[in-house]
């Protein structure tokens, strides 16, 4: 980055001081490594504005979280458990489903809203991953997972299978997710937007960078937390006769 010179009355060889302008300092986008003739007024005004925005955003976040915990945690009629509803209308009515897109109910621990072992989340997770309680959970010959109204009935999104693995604490469940992801690329070896529950060659979007990036994150996560799920077991050594 090219360094700016101070005004002629303040030589560049001198650090800014009261004798050559009390407001002149070293400022740039990286927080102060390049000399600049800007005054303190601009960054301080910007700082104050961002401080106000930060406090407003913090208050709004607290209000939203309070509203979710007060209005969106309801007792599911079928299971009798307290769960997070997908939609509420503020009049006591709730709609239960989930969408494969992130954010989603399935992704709440991934987003940092709740810990993965949260009781309400685990109850919600069970209804999300069941065709009996989620109208957009599909099962077929090709695999099983959450879909989306965007792609219609019978279309499973690899993104949801990835998120199921990212929020799972069970090795067998994670292995099953990896198996579905590996077998539904239609020999293209990339994550699609969706695939038909009975025919993985009937897919949407041959290249879906969002899902591919999330899949990469899953592999890094497993490599750090559960590497044994990614490594093939070694064959036993042959007996020496």
UniProtKB/TrEMBL annotation:
It comes from the Eukaryota. This is Metal-independent alpha-mannosidase. InterPro entries: 6-hairpin_glycosidase_sf (IPR008928), 6hp_glycosidase-like_sf (IPR012341), GH125 (IPR008313).
């Amino acid at each position: 980055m090219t360094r700016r010179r101070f005004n002629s009355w303040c030589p560049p060889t001198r650090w800014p001081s009261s004798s050559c302008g009390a407001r002149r300092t070293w400022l740039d986008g990286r927080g102060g490594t390049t000399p600049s003739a800007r005054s303190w007024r601009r960054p301080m005004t910007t700082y104050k504005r961002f401080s106000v925005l930060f406090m407003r955003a913090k208050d709004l976040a607290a209000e939203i979280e309070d509203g979710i915990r007060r209005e969106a945690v309801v007792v599911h009629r079928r299971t009798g458990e307290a769960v997070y509803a997908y939609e509420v209308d503020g009049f006591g009515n709730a709609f239960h489903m989930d969408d494969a897109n992130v954010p989603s109910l399935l992704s709440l621990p991934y987003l940092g809203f709740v810990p993965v072992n949260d009781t309400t989340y685990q109850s919600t997770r069970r209804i999300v991953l069941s065709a009996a309680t989620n109208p957009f959970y599909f099962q077929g010959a090709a695999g099983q997972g959450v879909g989306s109204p965007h792609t219609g009935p019978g279309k499973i999104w690899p993104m949801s299978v990835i998120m199921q693995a990212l929020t799972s604490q069970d090795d067998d469940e994670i292995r099953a997710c990896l198996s579905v992801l590996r077998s539904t690329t239609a020999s293209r070896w990339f994550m699609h937007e969706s695939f038909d529950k009975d025919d993985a060659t009937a897919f949407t979007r041959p290249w879906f960078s969002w899902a591919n990036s999330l899949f990469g994150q899953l592999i890094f996560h497993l490599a750090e937390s559960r590497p044994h799920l990614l490594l093939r077991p070694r064959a036993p050594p042959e007996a020496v006769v």
